[in-house]
TrEMBL record:
Lineage: Bacteria, Bacillati, Cyanobacteriota, Cyanophyceae, Leptolyngbyales
CDD domains the record matches: PhnM
Protein name: Phosphonate metabolism protein PhnM
Source species, domain of life: Bacteria
PANTHER family assigned to the protein according to its UniProt record, in alphabetical order: ALPHA-D-RIBOSE 1-METHYLPHOSPHONATE 5-TRIPHOSPHATE DIPHOSPHATASE (PTHR43135:SF3)
Provenance organism: Leptolyngbya foveolarum
UniProt xrefs under InterPro entries: Amidohydro-rel, Metal-dep_hydrolase_composite, Metal_Hydrolase, Metallo-dep_Hydrolase, PhnM
Entries under Pfam families matching the protein: Amidohydro_1
GO biological process: organic phosphonate catabolic process
GO MF annotation terms: hydrolase activity, acting on carbon-nitrogen (but not peptide) bonds
Length: 385
């Protein structure tokens, strides 16, 4: 049985940091010891963390359409996406695939969801991907056919999470219409008059379809025991509705009020790593760091910048004074718990899969400009980056 020994590493265990040795046999963590050994790979005091668990990334869409109007070959885009995430230290990912997109222009989200889902699944089955890919279906409630489409995937072997989204202007993420206009005019290049028509259409679509779609999707999630997230909660009522429906995640709450309510209702609160790294929300919503300091954040997602996920661990440690073994939990074990994978990943424990990261970083140096240096990414005992 193949054995690997990692010694003289700062092991980030579930409740403590230990300068010691971790042994891998057959792709599984076989032993953890609080001392150095003479044999094995000498980490020279680097951090050794579990592989990162990512619940929501739009990176696949970026790889398929790196610029407006560009469509990259799908097989190549899936490969680029997989390598991007491996290089960022992510060993388990829920690829966020949007079902329904009421935007001013034609979108990948209306036509490409099935090719994207199948391309990732087929390449994973063929063994050509470096990390473990799961499926996160982002469901736009105002899109007429969303529940019908999602029903086709409820038994898909990769499906781990669905999220309920409502991007209607004036609600949730875009309570401020000026921010909505700024975002869509900048991203899609539409005129102000076109956007007025678009806003009217979005409001009408929500009124016609959102309630029935939500009921159908909630029922599917409960019947099939799927993890479910409520997206962009802004009010106590949003959170209470999600909790009553069986959601376990409040994904990107936009206000302090909603984040507090989510914690009180027992939902895991998910915030974006870019928000943490940049010090605020691009949509003008609540600061992730403010919520971290109030102990209101359970999960962190890289959203649209894969490398921000690891960086967020060290940003939180530097800004709060908490040890890394605590600040890593939102990107490791808590994510595994959210999608029911905690039995075999998410923490450095004997018997769990050897998904490991080695990282060089000095928490005592100035924060400004400091970026963690990822030196190895190991999945199931095999180095992938």
């Amino acid at each position: 049985m193949k054995e690997q020994i990692y010694t003289n590493y700062r092991l980030q265990l579930p409740t403590e940091e230990v300068l010691g040795t971790l042994v891998v046999r057959g792709g599984v963590i076989a032993d953890i010891q609080p001392e150095r050994t003479e044999s094995g790979q000498n980490g020279e005091g680097q951090y050794l963390l579990p592989g990162l668990v990512e619940l929501h990334t739009d990176n696949l869409e970026r790889c398929i359409s790196p610029r407006p109007g560009i469509r990259w070959p799908l097989a190549a885009a899936v490969t680029y996406h997989d390598r991007d995430l491996a290089a960022a230290g992510i060993t388990t990912v829920c690829d966020a695939i949007a079902i329904g997109d009421l935007t001013p222009a034609e979108s990948l989200r209306k036509t490409n969801y099935d090719p994207m889902i199948q391309a990732v699944h087929n390449r994973q089955q063929a063994g050509s991907l470096l990390i473990d890919h799961r499926l996160h279906l982002r469901c736009e409630l105002g899109y007429e056919s969303v529940a019908e489409i999602v029903s086709q995937y409820v038994n898909h072997p990769d499906l781990a999470l669905i999220s309920l989204m409502d991007h209607t202007p004036g609600q949730r993420q875009f309570t401020k219409l000026d921010k909505f206009r700024e975002y869509y005019m900048g991203k899609h290049g539409v005129s102000e008059s076109e956007l007025d028509d678009f806003i009217q259409g979005r409001v009408q679509a929500q009124a016609e379809h959102a309630i029935n779609n939500r009921k159908a999707l909630v029922n599917m999630a409960n019947v099939h025991s799927l993890a479910m997230a409520s997206h962009d909660d802004a009010t106590v009522e949003h959170v209470q509705q999600a909790a009553a429906e069986g959601a376990n995640i409040s994904e990107f709450p936009t206000t302090l009020t909603a984040a507090k309510a989510a914690k009180e209702c027992g939902l895991q609160v998910l915030m974006g790593a870019p928000n943490l790294v940049l010090g605020g929300s691009h949509s003008g919503n609540v600061s992730a760091m403010d919520l971290v300091k109030l102990d209101l954040v359970d999960l962190i997602s890289s959203d649209y910048v894969p490398h921000s996920l690891l960086q967020s661990v060290f940003v939180m440690a530097a800004m709060t004074g908490q040890p890394v073994y605590e600040t890593m939990k939102p990107v490791t074990i808590n994510g595994a718990i959210a999608i029911q994978l905690e039995r075999d990943r998410g923490s450095l424990e004997v018997g769990k899969r050897a998904d490991l990261l080695t990282v060089r970083y000095d928490l005592n140096s100035d924060l400004d400009g400091q970026v963690p240096q990822l030196t190895q990414v190991i999945r199931g005992g095999c180095r992938v980056a």
